[in-house]
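Deviations from the work plan: none for this task. Representative record:
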Amino acid sequence: MGLKDSLHNFKEKNKDKKWLPAFSAIHTFLYLPNETTHNGTHIKAADDLKRTMNTVIMAMVPCLIFGMFNAGYQHNLEIGDIQAAAGSFFSSEFWTMDNFLIGFWKILPLVIVSYAVGLGIEFIFAIIKGHEVEEGYLVTGMLVPLIVPVDIPLWMLAVAIVFGVVIGKEVFGGTGMNILNPALTIRAFLFFAYPTWMSGDKVWVEGAVERANNIAAGANLDAISGETILGSLAQGKAAGYEVMDMFLGFIPGSVGETSTLLIVLGGLFLIFAKIGSWRIMLSSALGAIVMGLIFNQVVDSGWITESSKFYGLMSTTWWHHLLIGGFAFGTVFMATDPVTASQTNKGKWIYGFLIGFISILIRVFNPAYPEGVMLAILLMNVFAPTIDHYVVQGNIKQRMKRLKAKTA
Amino acid sequence: MSNDIRIKKGLDIKLKGEAEKTSEKAILSNFYTLRPEDFHGVTPKLISKVGTKVKAGETVFFDKSNETIKFASPVSGEILEISRGEKRKILAIKIQADKEQAYQDNGTFDVDTANSETVKSHLLASGCWPFIKQRPYDVIANPDKMPKAIFISGYASAPLAADLDFTLQGKEPELQAAIKALGKLTEGKVHVSVGKNGNSPLIGLAGITLHKVSGPHPSGNVGTQINKIDPVNKGEVVWTVNPQDLVIIGELLLTGKFNAERIVALVGSSVQKPRYFVTKIGSEVATMVYDKGISRDTNDRIISGNVLTGKQIKPDGYLDYYSNVISIIPEGNDYEFFGWTKPVFNKVSISRALTFSWLAPKKTYDLNTNTNGEHRAFVTTGTYEEVFPLDIFPMQVLKACLYKDLDEMEALGMYEVAPEDFALTEFVCVSKQPHQKIIREGLDLMLKEIG
C-alpha cells in the first residue's frame, strides 16, 4: 500500500506542524485513522461522527437531485416551453435532461460555494485553535444550498456563510457547542440582510429576476414569476397547485424543500438508521397539525371572515400545512440537529411539538414573509436548554424525594 | 413481590474467543506483583523492604489514610523489587515466590458467634478487606461506616466474561461462610443476583436476598443491580464484593489461610484455545497466554480484565487484584481505506448507518482496538440512553463531571455510579469520549471535596 504508507510517514514527519489538522482532515477522509484505544473500553463501536454526518447527507441527496430537476422544470414551465407535469411522480415533463442541466448548473455553484467557504473557515479555525477539523459543517454545507432560492447571488451566500459559521458556531467553540442551528443562522442572515432576494414572487424561479430586470430596461418580454404557495395564500389568492403536486414537489420554493415525498423518505431513512430523532419529527408534525386544526376551527366558527388578511392561510386545510413551504424539510433535517435540539428524550417531544405549533402560528400571522419554520426552529433552539433543564430537574427531584422518604 | 430484575436497555457485545469450560492449572509463576494502582485512591505505606521474607497472607503495605486496611501478599516469598515512578510513587511490589508455599495462620473463625466488630477486625487484619468495595466513589470500603446493604453480582454479562456459574462450582462452603460474615457487617440485606437461566452455586445460600437477572449487558453490573434494587442516596453507603473474592474470604474464615487462588478465563479472538486457568492474584500473565494462546511478538492487546473495563498490560505484566479474566484481542493500529463511509459488516454498532450488525444479532465479532474514529465534542444525543439502564441522565452527568460542578454531579446521581457503569456508553460513543475516565475523575473530585 504505497499511498497508505506515504501518508502515514508524512503525518509522522510533520507531527508538530501547525497546519497538520488541515492535512489530517484530508487524511482521515481517505483513511479511517490508525488510532487505538488506551484505557477505558478497549473496543469501540463502528460509528464515528463522520459516518453519522455522512448518513444525514445521504438522506438529503435525493432532495438535492430533485431540486436540480425542479429548478429547470419551474424555469421551463414559466417561460412556456413545457406543459405542467401533473399527478405522477415519474412525469415525463419533469424528468428531462434539459430540466436537470438548467438546475445542475445553477445549484452546483451553490453547493461548491457552500462547502468551499464553510469548510475553509473550519480549516482556519482548526489550525488557529489547534484541534482537528470537525465534521459539523459537512451537513450544514449540504443544507445551505437546499434552503435558499435558486437564484441567490453567490457572494451573498458566501457572506452569509461566513457570518453563520463564525458567529453562529465558531465563537461558541465549534461543532457541538453552538446554540443555534448554523444552517438556519445562515438563512436567517440572508433573510434579514437581503430580504428582496429571499421573498417575493421573483426569486423562486430560475431567471425570473434577470427577466424582470431586462423588462425594466425596455426589453419586450413576458415577465415570469413564480410565487410560492405560501406567498399566494398569504395574499389571499388560491394556492394554484394540486395537493398531489405539493406532495411530490412540482412547486416553486427553496431548492430542496419542495418534495415532501422525498423528504419523508429521507426522514424515514434517518429514523431507520437511528441517526435522526423520530420523537422530534413526529411531535413536530403533531404540533403543526394541532395548530392547523385550531386555525381551521377559528375559520369554521366564523370568527374570521374572508376580508381578513389572515383568512387565506388560516383556512388552509390543516394537513396541507405539512406539505407546503419548508415545514417538512425543516422538521426532518433541521429541527433534529442533535446539538441545538433538546437532548433529553422527554425534552424532544416538547421541543418538536412547539416547533410545529409555532411554525404554523408564524406562517399565518406573518404575511410579509409567510415561512414560519425557520424562525420557529431558531426560537426553540434558544429554548431547548430550558426544556432540558426542567426535564433533568424532574429526575433530580425524584432522587431528592427518594432521599426524603428515607430520612422522614 | 418478585425480586427479579429485567433489563431492557443495554447491549450484548458478542465477541469471538469465549472460554471453553475446562480449567487447568496454570504454570506456577515465579514472580508475583502487587500494584497499588489496582486499589484506587490508596496511598500505600510499606512495612516491608526489598529482601523481606513474607508469608502468603502477610501484610506488605497498608493504606496511609486508614492504617487498619492492610494489603496481603498473595504468596510466600521474598520481596525482590519495589519500582517507583514520579515523586517516588510506588508502582509495583515484586515478590519472588518460594518453592514451598507457607501461609500465615490467621486461625479459624467461628462466624456464628462473631459480631460485626470481630468480623471486621478479622477481615482487616488478614488482608481480606480490600476485596470489599463501596459506593459511592467505587473505592475500597471505609470500615468505619455501616453500609445500608451489601451487593454481590453472581452474573457476569460483560463481553467474554468468565462464567461465574462455572468458576464458583463446588465453592459453596466458602461462599456461605463469607456471606454469613458479611451479613454481620450490615444492618440491611445481602443482595445476591444470579443469571435467570443459570445454575449458580449462590442460589442455595442462606442469609441472602436472591435476585434473578435477565437482559443484555450491563444487567450483570453490580451498579445496575443497585440502581434497580436499592439505589444509593446521599449520605448512604453500600458495599460490593466480587463473588470470586468471596471464595478467598470464605476460605480464610474456614481455614485461616489467605489463599489467593482464583479461576481466571483466558479469552479473546487472538487466543488459540480460550479456556480457564487456576492461578493466583498477581501472577505473571506469561504463565498463561503463550500456551495455546498467542505467539510471541504478535500485534495483540493483552488486557487484565474484560475488554470494556480492563487494564492494558504488557506480555510480561501481571494479573491484577480484582480481575478474573484475561482478554486478548488484535491491535487495530492500521488505517482503513474510506473506513468511515463504507458499509460495515465486521464491527458492532447500535445504529444502522450503513452498519449492519443489526442484521445478525447472533453473530460473534472479532473486534480490534481501533477507535473507529477520532475524538470529538459531544454531538449526538439519545445514543447513550439506549444502552444505559440506570435512572440517570448519562450525558448530563458526564458534562457535569467535565465542568466540575459538584452540586450538579451530586444531584444527577454520581453517588450511585462507578466508571464501569459508563463502559457501554463509552463503547457506543460517536464522539469517542473517554467516559470511564471522566466519571473516575469526577468521583475523585467529589471524594476529595465532599468525602
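DSSP finds ten helices and 21 strands in chain B.
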